[in-house]
Amino acid sequence: MSLATDRILIIGGSSGMGLATARRLGAAGARPIIAGRNAARLGDALATLPAGASAETVDFADEASIAALFERVGAIDHLMLCASSGAAWGPFATLETAAVRTAFDNKFWGYWMATRLALPHLAERGSILMVTGAAGRAAMPGTSGLAAVNAAIAGFARTLAVELAPRRVNVLSPGLVDTDAYGWMPTDARSAFFADTAAKLPAGRIGAADDIAAMAETMLANPFLTGAVIDLDGGASLHRG
Could you tell me the CA-to-CA distances from 205 to 169, 177, 208, 215, 238 in Å, in that order? Predict the structure, then answer.
């Protein structure tokens, strides 16, 4: 179950869970390729990765940009999709349709297009790992927009696990993870939010990016795992409170 020397494209790999996974894979001898929109952020991220890693810019909402990315990258062994879904937060009654459409454009359609465009470049026994989020599996008020996006991804991924076999397709569904995705929140508010959530979880804490990276490595490497949706959420999908 070694990923040593494998070429692994991580779209959304310039920060957070994607970057943590790239670091872990690079340390294990794999050759991660991180991709994202922000060239400066990619450069900073690449500087933290071992030799053999590389970086590519891509607009995840633009099909032509994704196609050009795969033409530049060439053959890959695995594809990991770890992009943000955008700001589709808030109560259903007041959530604007435009915000949900943006979330679908930034994540669902990006995952859909990247998966289809990856096929000519993906190894016959390769795999695709789609990172979604706990909102798609746990009924949490204020996350209906995120739930719609993430549940839609999980739905088509399971079908692709059959349709694209012997390539493997899996979904990793993290809960609340301490990453810079929450950098928009004031420090005190963010700390209080994390502490309040941790107190309600069976695990007694929120996630770290390295927790997700460890599971991502396992899912990419295990040749018997396909069609799985794995909740790595500290028990959020079990707990109500």
Answer: 29, 10, 9, 17, 15
Q: 135: closest CA among 157, 117, 153?
A: 153
Instruction: Specify the 3-state DSSP secondary structure of 120.
Output: helix
What pairs with residue 173 in β-bridges?
231
- Quick one: which of 172, 174, 177 has its CA closest to 81? 172
Angle of CA points 7, 8, 11, to nearest 5°? 140
d(CA 205, CA 203): 6
DSSP for 139-165? Answer: --TT-HHHHHHHHHHHHHHHHHHHHTT
The closest of 51, 158, 176, 174 to 115, measured between CA atoms, is 158
> CA 124 to CA 217: how far, in whole Å?
19
Omega into 166 within 30° of 0, i.e. cis? yes
The residue behind tokens 């991660």 is 32
State CA 117 to chain mean position distance.
Answer: 17
Mean pLDDT by 10 residues, the chain (241 residues): 92 96 97 96 97 95 96 98 76 83 89 97 97 72 77 95 98 90 80 90 94 98 97 81 42
Are the C-beta atoms of 132 and 150 separated by less than 8 Å?
A: yes
User: What residues are paired with 170 via a beta bridge?
Assistant: 129
Contact 99, 145 (CB under 8 A): yes
Strand boundaries in 12-48, DSSP class E: 31-36
The pTM of the full predicted model, rounded to 2 decimals, is 0.93
What's the token pair of residue 185?
Answer: 């929140």
